[in-house]
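Archive entry. Fields below.
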Amino acid sequence: MTRQFSRLLLAGCTALFITPLSHAQGDPDAGAQLVNQGDGSGAPCMACHGPDGGGNAVAGFPRLAGLDAGYLAKQIQDYNSGRRVSPVMQPNVDNFSEQQAQDIAAYYASLPVPASTAASSASESQLAMGKKLAEEGDWDNSIPPCSTCHGPGNRGVGDAFPALAGQHPSYIKQQLEAWQNGQRKNDPNQLMTAVAERLSSEQVEAVAAYLGTLSTQPAKAQ
Amino acid sequence: MNYKEITALFTGLLISNAALSAEPAVPVNLPEFKEGQYVHQAPSVQDLENNDSIHPELKKVILKGRDMFMNTQQFRGEYVFNDMNCKSCHMGEGRRNWSGPVWPAATTLPDFRGKNQHVNSLEERIAGCFSFSMNGTPPAYGSDDMLAMVAYHRWLATGAPVYEKNIGGRGFSHLGREKPALDYDKGKAVYTENCAICHGDSGQGQHKDGEVVFPPLWGDNSYNWGAGMTRVFTAASFIKNNMPLGKPGSLTDDEAWQVANYINSQERPQDPRYTGDVKETREKYLNFHKHTNYGTVVNGKLLGDHDNTGSKPFLKPDALKPRTFD
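PREDICTED_STRUCTURE:
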């Protein structure tokens, strides 16, 4: 056995022992292929979420580009475990392996956020109500502001609190309703369920519209 | 997926919709008010805007005070030397019952306070928060900033009877001061399960784009050893009625006590009243520290036995002064 070969063997063994211990890392290139071509079963992601990951406002398909990879991978797993129910998503992700879910998530997380073209059709008073909910909450009804958890500008915090800024209002509304009626219950410690179920339908409309108008990037330092 | 499957799914959705109208999945469980208590409805910003009897200049000052209260981090390095905002502990803009509503300070002071053994003004009470909970130093007495804070407090108290002491929803408290048997590991388990997702595994909190999102619960950027929240009963009551966020009353009383004890068994910046000796300081302020773990040994370590003042470059703010009328 040559020295080089034994070194390779050693490296291989080390990798074998180390890999299962570390958290699965997504490969964005492998993810790109799955997103654009699918895996032979179901539609490829891009068919609904768009070639740039921008989603579809009219249909209520969310933008995925630029979202946190950990958050995205968890959603795929949760569709498969039934903690998040979607008759559209579940059959499309049901045969992805854990690794493929990580790859897809890594790819979408790496994409730049496409420029939004649609102006909000919401009224001024609706946007004002949404802004108040997002930034100050409605404490008299035990509703904390969205930004308390989703962070400054609701641009998201870590893998548990996704970015809401610039997301399609149609999707945010649909999800708040999913929390309300129990189709979605994949929140850690029921943190989102608690808040969502206290929102009136008027508040759901308003906050979804407002969050959709927010920039996905922090304002430039002055 | 075929047509039948889709129909079945939608039927399922309709059923879960019908089940929804019954009980909330996460009820808000807050203590009842006791008979004879005064229960206050503090005004909202909208009330302020709609109130023509308040001079526009006063409105401006009240709103400035409110802005200081909500975003106290704008004074980082000036008045505040940790990651706290007033609203971190006084939730709901300082208006919410059982979340340390701040308006009672405006109707019950001046009064004698056990903590510093003299009669305190509203300004001195606010100064206490800056000195301990914010690990900082208050705006100068009589300054524009202090006036704005005072104006915000007093306006929130609009309509409340002066010197009424039987107030429903005051403070955080309903768990009482009698500690149950406390166990560090039990508290740690409650923390890991319910708190770590926001406040982090080591209580470090979370930041985003340079801003504090979830405040640290211990360490250099949290409240110091003189803050009311270091008293285990205060933290337990706060947690019981306010945490996890959006789920007041969801922890059992025992879970709230255990996790409050766990959080307050960690290191934090020195008590500004430190004499140079932690045991001596504990003894000197025992009426306060008998409720804290400061100066006691937890897991083989004497808590508070250090000179660390966090990111604050001094120990004691000048505003903390005794007062006598002898």
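CURATOR_NOTE: The first helix of chain B runs from residue 3 to 20.
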